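Why do we care about 3D structure at all? Because function follows from shape, and shape follows, mostly, from sequence. That is the central idea of this module. The next example makes it concrete: a single protein chain, its amino acid sequence, and then its structure expressed as tokens.
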Amino acid sequence: MDKCRANFVFAKLNMNFKIRAATTVDCKDISRMITELAVYEKMPGQVKISSEELERDGFCQNPLFQCLVAEVPDENKPKEGFAIVGYALYFSIYSTWKGRSMHLEDLYVMPQFRGFGIGKGLLAAVAKVAKEKQCARLQLIVLDWNTPSRDFYAAKGAEDLTANEGWHLLRFHGQNLDALAIETPKN
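And the structure:
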């Protein structure tokens, strides 16, 4: 499905909200919420991306990610005046075993808007996009101490691959990535 056509409307407990494809105008709000998520995940100093980089990387000819945002009407805005209160950032990946797949990098809802179905709506909307793109699976990573999120995803049917299959996430970054790149064989 074209990200510009993603439009979902939900209402629950007198909380109206709409889930829609993000636009370049939303990048400042997405950046703000990325920082909020990093604080929640106890890694506030790790965020190095700017709203300009989000705009460049997500809204170019070949975007590196797609994003959905949850938007509330004026009567539900928080005192800070934000209309965008949640987001889901995702991108396509490929499995040599299963084919087309999707990775959900972030799903975040501002704390005062949790419990109204916004997170469920964002997750369902990403799953719908994955199915429309004929993805065999939707995957994500959750911190081991983040029991509320782990329980949320498990209740929706997510399988814990570390517990069930023993897979571990590994990462090269910084000096280790630089050193590995230097080892490229010369032709």
